[in-house]
Amino acid sequence: MLQIIAFYLFAALVIASGAMTIFSRNPVHSVLWLILAFFNAAGLMVLLGAEFIAMLLVIVYVGAVAVLFMFVVMMLNIDFAELRAGFMKNAPLGVVIALVLVCELVLGLGAYRAGIIELGTPSGEVLLGETNIAQIGELLYGRYLFLFESAGIILLVAMIGAIVLTHREQRSPRGHQNIAKQNARRPDEATELKQPGVGQGVEL
Amino acid sequence: MTATFIEWGMDAGWAMIVSAIIGSLLIALPLMLAVAMIIYVDRKVWAAINLRRGPNVVGPFGLLQSFADGLKVMLQETILPSAANKGIFLIAPIVTFSVALAAWAVIPFDAGVVLADINVGLLYILAISSLSVYGVVMSGWASNSKYPFFSAMRASAQMISYEVSIGFILVCVVLYAGSFNLSAIVEAQKGHGLGIINGYWFNLLLFPIWVMFFISALAETQRVPFDLTEAESELVAGYQTEYSSMSFALFWLGEYANILLMCSLNTLLFWGGWLPPLDIPVLYLVPGIIWFLLKTFFFFFMFSWVMATVPRYRYDQLMRLGWKVFLPLSLFFVVAISGWLMFTRYGVAA
């Protein structure tokens, strides 16, 4: 009973906040609704007994990705009048996308009515009684080790690529800051006390 | 507690809900009291280091100062800036406050004394603490004013930077303990150092990790020397500038609840939680919760000590420390610790 109430609560909130993400006029509000959607999706994951995935969803999407979204959206200060000006120009493209989505929806419903696909039966033994994390770890670092590692390397390459693309050699006249040198400075080598006589001034 | 309610003839589902509500209240109310007192302690310690008296007028030794402040704040008018984004402006302090309370659900105060003994406890803490930035960002943006906005920008960059290294630091502890459950992590520390010292701090590989964790915790809770989000000499009061009365107080309560949370995490992850410092039978006569509170209080003292003695970082220094020092160091320790554990505990041939 409790699970059913919780499920419908989370599911309704995911859909509602997903819709509000699209409908709200202010992009910052959109991001906040998106965060609510992520959060409720994490709730659904908990109901499925996948608490590890739920926590990852919150840590990665809410904690990192959405913060960056928010950062960008807040900085950009999007002008809506300008956005709406291009509406008529892009309308045909929008209609095409809408048609494709309708086709997919009809096909999907039709396929659902036609009955389910015969799936292969899982070959490996089902791991029961272990925690989520242990199970996922077992699979990722055992059976799917190669895929997992190569995904990691692809991400690393993408990251290095992004850094290479945006990195610019600084040629400023001021020269670079040397932190170690700054930290090593002591008061007696950086300052000098002088007692100038009246009207004499200081030699620098 | 659930079992008791079922005995009283309650439905299992209802018993769970009722015991969860009572458990939350049992944590939240003493926590609020602790926050009020710890603000007083903070001011007293700070005053003592500055050779001042600190709060000493309201009540004996000024003990009731925080309550007087709370009463004052409650009686004030809530001011809504006309240019503010009303809804988000009002939600922001509530988010800060409730997120700060929510994290306490998985903190074990003694063996078995924990509201939610979930096996992803540490990940839950990480998830919740990553949420706490939203209170700051939302308030900064919704205030529709320059300084709060700068503060929000700083906060989001700072939190993301330090979350990364905190993540790696927690991985090191998890590798040693072999569990994400906070109670299991504490149990794993029993007699860790030379078979007599309870705690991971007595370990050449984990002690530097603890130092990094302590500093990152300062940055994560936006305490001095990393309080650039509310740097009063540059940003008035940062994201709190436009707030008044209760909404302002909620920020304060949330902030101190977060600080206490980080202190208790220090205790739980590196200093043996509710276990006595030494694994000697006599010391187990003292209840575990006393040890836990004593250690947490000690770390809070260290927080105020730092606050009173260290000057504020510049923003570029803060970023440099996070990305160029802590990130590579913590990454190195993850590799070193997993290598060491492979070598000693799990066997190389596996």
Describe this structure in words.
- The complex is a heterodimer of chains A (204) and B (350).
- Chain A has 204 residues and is mainly α.
- Chain A is 72% helix and 0% strand.
- In chain A, α1 (2-23) runs antiparallel to α2 (27-47), α2 (27-47) packs antiparallel against α3 and α6 (132-143) crosses α7 (145-166).
- Chain A is built from 9 helices and no strands.
- The mean pLDDT of chain B is 84.
- Chain B has 350 residues and is mostly helical.
- The radius of gyration of chain B is 21 Å and the shape is globular.
- Helices cover 66% and strands 0% of the residues of chain B.
- Chain B starts with a helix and ends with a helix.
- Chain B is built from 12 helices and no strands.
Assess the beta-strand content of chain A as a share of residues.
under 5%
**Count of alpha/pi helices of chain A:** 9
Give the fraction of residues assigned to helices of chain A: over 70%
- How far apart the termini of chain A lie comes to 83 Å
Helix/sheet category of chain A: mainly alpha
| Uncertain parts of chain B | none
The ordered H/E elements of chain A are HHHHHHHHH
Secondary structure: number of strands of chain A: 0
* Content-based structural category of chain B: mainly alpha
Largest sheet of chain A: none
Low-confidence stretches of chain A: none
Give the assembly state of these chains: heterodimer
